[in-house]
Amino acid sequence: MQVIYPLTIEDFNKGAITVVSKVKIDSDGAGTFEELPDIKTYNISTNEENRVARFCSYSFNITCLNNDNRYGPLNSGSDYYEWLKQGRKIKLYAGITGRDPFQLILGRIDDFKLSKRAGEDICTITGRCLMRMVLDFKLYSPYTYWGTSTIYDTVANKIRYDMPADDELGCKGVYKVELDHTNKDGTALEEIFENSDWSYDWHNNQLVFTPRRIPDFAGTNNLKVYYFQEQKVEDVVADILIGSGILQAKIEATTISFSDNDPDPDTILDSSNSFI
């Protein structure tokens, strides 16, 4: 029979297991990773996609404080202005203090939402790892994928812009729009957002500006529209790997495994499952 002894004071003085987590964001889109402050929680969902190759894909959501509206899209005076953008790279670390290795997931941001919860200003960030991006970029129909982009000249007060209409290579939906309203020559493109700034007219295959964002100026090569196309699967994978920088991220992740000393302990290894 097993003998069960009562707890002693020494039992309570033993070291506890401390889980360390950290999130870093490519704050300027140029590879300058900064730590995301005031994280409340983050959750990672994983699903094993291939029992033989044993690679996994991850999606995640992060909840952090939005003190002083630091992540507000119009708060240009904030030190965190424009940190959070769709497609921006993000690193998630998790591990137990004193135990190697730490887990590293490298992914990209999908979206973020600002809200108030229990009297606190909250920012919720969603995203996915790079493998999940490849698996999920099939939308709308079995053969419709992230495609290409086209550039327009803006016409003052023009609301609708016709999208390419070729049966095979034409537009099957718009997913991102950039507008240069500063220099008006395409040298200062900035992303504008669906529903608040633009929408897509499926029936007429047109990009449509909302009343608040209709350009009241003429410009040259200052409107860039990214849209979906019907493509072969192998072409899609090649486009995503090269165009979105995933292949380069694989190389960067290998370097991170041996060079990134943050957070402690010094040894940080990537999961070996997050990349192709």
SSE diagram, text form:
Elements: H1 9-13, E1 19-26, E2 33-35, E3 39-48, E4 56-65, E5 89-96, E6 103-117, E7 120-129, H2 130-136, E8 144-152, E9 160-162, E10 174-179, E11 190-192, E12 198-201, E13 206-209, E14 223-230, H3 233-243, H4 246-259
Antiparallel strand pairs: 1-2, 1-5, 3-4, 4-7, 5-6, 6-7, 8-14, 9-13, 10-11, 10-14, 12-13
Mean pLDDT: 78
List low-confidence stretches: 249-276
- Strand tally is 14
Q: Kindly report the name of the CATH homologous superfamily of the largest domain.
A: Trypsin-like serine proteases
The CATH class of the largest domain is identified as: Mainly Beta
Our count of helices gives 4
Structural class: mainly beta
Major sheet = 7 strands, antiparallel
What is the ordering of alpha helices and beta strands?
Answer: HEEEEEEEHEEEEEEEHH
Distance between the termini: 52 Å
Total number of distinct structural domains: 2
How are strands sequenced across the largest beta sheet?
Answer: 2-1-5-6-7-4-3
Nearest-angstrom radius of gyration?
23 Å
Bulk shape = elongated
What amount of the residues lies in strands?
35-45%
CATH structural architecture of the largest domain: Beta Barrel
CATH level-3 fold name of the largest domain: Thrombin, subunit H
Helix coverage percent: 10-25%
